[in-house]
Amino acid sequence: MHHPGAPWAGGRGEAPSEFAKASTSAAAAAPGDPVIPEEFGEEQTIEECVAEATNLADTLDYFDRCVATTDANIRSVTDLAAAVPVPDAPWFPPDLASWEARWVLAHITAEVARHTGHADIIRESIDGKGSYELNERADGFLDDDEEYAPYG
């Protein structure tokens, strides 16, 4: 099943809760690959998400299913030191193989806080800056005049 357009769910164009589901699922079963329910379909870019017209009820239903899956995965984590495989993405260092489950859970909390109650996804679609670039700039690792270059 292909999920309805849900640009509110994540940053840098990926399906929002896919990272959370994959990460917490991996933590619960580490080591091993996460199991993502087939009904969630493939990840989509922001352009693919907004290209499909969906109604509010379908979008909220999809959101509720993502929340329930993420909640179940988080509740199944029993070892906060479990190694969680790092997804293959250009914004992660290529030599980073895993995080501890405790880091993933803290990261999910930060991501939810970042995206809740404001229009971050709208800002990302206008200026093209994702959270990793903004964090590097805010932490002083990247000057305003420097171009952001993800790993890879």
Automatic annotation (TrEMBL):
SUPFAM superfamilies recorded: DinB/YfiT-like putative metalloenzymes
Compositional bias of kind Low complexity: 20-30
InterPro entries recorded: DinB/YfiT-like, MST-like
Segments for region (Disordered): 1-36
Protein's recorded name: Mini-circle protein
Organism: Nostocoides australiense Ben110
